[in-house]
Structures are given as C-alpha cells and as structure tokens.
Amino acid sequence: MSGQRPEHAAAARRLGEELRELQRRSGRTLRALEAQVRISDSSLSRYFRGETVPPWPVVRDLCRALGADPSEYRALWEATDRSRPDEPAPAAPPPKPSPTRRRRLRKHLSGRWGFAAAGTAIGLAAGLTLFGLQQSPAPPPARGAAGAKDNGTGYGDAGVLVHNAEEDCQKPRTHKCALHLAWDPYRPYTTANSADRVWHHDLLHARCRIADGVTVTDENEKHSSIWIQVARNGQRLWLPGIRVDPNRLDQLSTVLPRCPP
C-alpha cells in the first residue's frame, strides 16, 4: 500500500478487517466466495487485507453472500472513497517508430511474428463476419472465443468479440458508446488508464488472460477481475473480462493460457 495517504490506508484496512470478520463468522472459504461473487480468491484476499478497496457493488455482493446487511457497511466504504488519493498519471504510450523505421521493420519482418501480424490485419479487414483469425489452416473458431495455446511462447491465439452490456449501445459506434482498452490491468479502470477505444462486437486478437486484475463493474452491476491481453495496432493492451459475453468468457478461460509473469 505504498504511496497511499495514511488516512486512506487506515480506512481501507478497517473495511478489509470488517469484511474478513464477516467471512470468518460465515465459515465460507475464499474459493467458495470466488465461485459465488465471481471475484478471484487473490483479489478477495487483497480486499480483506485492506491492500485494495473494492468497488461498492463488490462490497454489497460480498455482504449479501455472507449474510450481512450491505447498508451497515456503506459508511465504511464511503470513508475509503473520501480519503482516496488522486489518480496516478497515465502511463505514456510506447513511442511510435518513424516512417523510415516502419518501412525497415516491414521489410525485415519475418518468421512467426510476421505471420501473426499478417493474420491479424486480414482478420480485421474482413469484418466481423469472421470469428477466427485467419493465420492458420484450421477451420474458423467458434464465435467469440476459440484458438489454441502456443506452449512455445506461453501465449495463445484466439478471437474475442467485445460485448457491451448496455443494449442501447450495441449498435451505435459513438463516443458515448465506446468501451476502453487499458494499459495496465492492475490500475483503476479510468480514463487515465485508457489506451484505445472499442465498440460492441469488435473482433480482437487475444493472447492470454489473468484472473487477479482490478475488479471492473459493468452497467448491469456485474463485476469481474478477469482481464484479457489483446494485440492491437502493434501494442499489447488489456480488455476487462466483464466486456466479454459471460458464456464466451468461460470458453476463453479454457482456451487462453494465463499470461506469463
């Protein structure tokens, strides 16, 4: 919890202690809670230690799962919010290569990465009617999630469709309806951490996944700490798992490997 103001750290610890005491009294294990509230046990452990402050919907659902009245814990959560430090400055994007260097890179690009980049470009240009990346002779994968693990690199290869839970935003490609890819899955999912915009049903190239990122809550107050690393415009960015249809997310969890440390 380095870098936090003392009052914020103290408020987070108080909330964590109360939530941990609820868990102890209930006799529930972290694994059991993980299955019920769809938050990884490692994230729950950080919440209970006060290292991370969960969003209010997570606190509410934890209280309900543990048989407590959420309203009794609202003041504790609000105390952490009032003492929250300012958002960190956004991470600077990687510098773009000069036109000369881009031509040189294109000229010398070869081997495995060259085929992967070409496959990504072809898949995106073909439109959303293609649901697998066309860089292997295998048949197109199932819509929204498919691919194969690459044990040689530790990364996988799968197509994933972006899902916007807000029905009014499933067709318009407007600024209001845009969703965001992030630079870092362990930083708050805010505009300061926004790397690029995507829209409902955009097809992305997924590489791997983590289960212990920051918790993200969607418009229907569903939440998840799963994040998916995607390759986009030559960069490695992160899509919150909550921005994938729940059924497809379950499929991705069996297809994609965990991201290498």
TrEMBL record:
Organism: Streptomyces bluensis
Coiled-coil region(s): none
InterPro entries from the UniProt entry: Cro/C1-type_HTH, Lambda_DNA-bd_dom_sf
Keywords per UniProt: Membrane, Transmembrane, Transmembrane helix
Protein name: Helix-turn-helix domain-containing protein
UniProt region (Disordered), positions on chain: 80-105
Domain HTH cro/C1-type: from-to ranges: 19-73
Gene3D superfamilies hit by this protein: lambda repressor-like DNA-binding domains (1.10.260.40)
TM stretches of this protein: 113-133
Skewed-composition ranges (Pro residues): 88-98
Family annotation (SUPFAM superfamilies): lambda repressor-like DNA-binding domains
Pfam families, per the entry: HTH_31 (PF13560)
